[in-house]
Amino acid sequence: MNIDVLxxxxxxxLALGAVFKYLEITQxxxxxxxxxPKHFKSSNNMILDSTTILNLGxxxxxxxxxxxxxxxxxxxxxxMGSRTLKQWISKPLIDKKSIEKRLEIVEIFRNxxxxxxxxKEYLSxxxxxxxxxxxxxxxxxxxxxxxxxxxxxxxxxxxxxxxxALGLDTLEEFHDLxxxxxxxxxEEPSTQVGTGRVIKKGxxxxxxxxxxxxxxxxxxxxxxxxKEKEKTGISNLKVSRNKIYGFxxxxxxxxxxxxxxxxxxxxxxxxxxxxxTEELRNLEEKYSIAEKKIDELxxxxxxxxxxxxxxxxxxxKILSSNISKIDIxxxxxxxxxxxxxSKPDFDDDNFVIINGRHPVVEQxxxxxxxxxxxxxxxxxxxxxxxxxxxxxxxxxxxxxIISIMAQIGSYVPAEYAKLPIxxxxxxxxxxxxxxxxxxxxxxxxxxxxxxx
Length: 452
Ligand SMILES: Nc1ncnc2c1ncn2[C@@H]1O[C@H](COP(=O)(O)OP(=O)(O)OP(=O)(O)O)[C@@H](O)[C@H]1O
Ligand SMILES: [Mg+2]
Hints:
Elements: H1 10-27, H2 50-55, H3 69-73, H4 79-90, H5 96-110, H6 113-124, H7 129-137, H8 143-165, H9 175-184, H10 205-215, H11 217-232, E1 238-242, E2 246-252, E3 264-268, E4 272-276, H12 278-309, H13 313-338, E5 345-346, E6 350-356, E7 371-376, E8 381-383, H14 392-407, E9 416-419, H15 427-436, E10 441-443
Parallel strand pairs: 5-9
Antiparallel strand pairs: 1-2, 2-4, 3-4, 6-7, 6-9, 8-10
Helix pairs in contact: 4-13, 5-13, 6-8, 6-13, 7-13, 8-9, 10-12
Bound molecules: adenosine-5'-triphosphate and magnesium ion.
């Protein structure tokens, strides 16, 4: 990772250095899986400060859970999709082409509700691959992570079929990786590596050979048991093995006088005694060597597998981000149908919303009254008056939220909306004025006249 390409200034370098130092200390290992940091230029996104995010109720916090823009738009089915949606909401786009590209995809999903629903099903079976990928990078992935990853990857061809039916870009399918995971990891691995129940049969010869010893053990024990029963005449004699004591011959107290002298006493239970013989002792040694070998081998094979998987991390991250995008935009389409949203238009000379609604407030009332706004070059501000509790603040917020929705690529709660692309949103200023003046003044400033 070469940091020069970023052209960071001194302050940025210091901040980045501090971040890495912090990670090094808290993660207690080498940091290998980070992508190069990106320069977030204010010219790429609408500036939304934390007060605005709070005032407009964009993202959930402890107080407003279930009543934010995020909640209204969250039709995502993957964990990374809903995390990415939060990022989108806090960083609306200001590039018209990028916004329109998102809106186009939403429209495509909307026009095919059947495929939209089917896609939802497939997305639902994709696991949190973003987190799994980072655990792979940190060498902390578990066997079950790898199964979850494989399950998720196996869904991709189905998703791609739907995407290409809609004429959309498809996702990389990772057939090699699926093959590797399939051949390496059992269908239901134990959580612990080293038990012999993680690496699949056929993946490694040596491991299979050691495991075979155990697979045949029950037959083997039965054979010994039969032989010993015959020799001693103890009909209920049992030969078994447990983790702590190893192999043993168990004889009930009633038959204790029939025990031959070469049996060595090992353990006394309430109703029985356990013994070992020379033969069993040798067998025990063979078994514990095999056990140790299985533990060693499986751990080594698993670690090597994780190292091998690291080669895929970069592409998997791209996959994860593409899945998030599809997940969010499909969700926007569903939200737009469920809530009756329309596709916004963009035009720098007009600010028109016909019969707009507040997307959150309307969820909690059956009788939301739509409101319009029409601004243009000759009419640049509105004086908004009304009695207490008449909906002034809601109206103001709804205009802000509609702008933000449009600029993240979502349809908007209005019959029609033609909006300029805003680079900055400052309701804080407006809200302060609300405190000063009984009647609220809503001031909309032209993007071009903004000092930023
Ligand atoms: N268009 C609407 N349709 C239905 N209910 C609405 C509408 N706008 C606002 N409300 C509801 O009316 C109540 C008052 O809204 P709001 O706080 O926006 O009024 P306000 O005029 O700003 O009040 P105040 O003068 O006290 O600041 C809220 O409970 C809100 O959910
Ligand atoms: Mg108010």
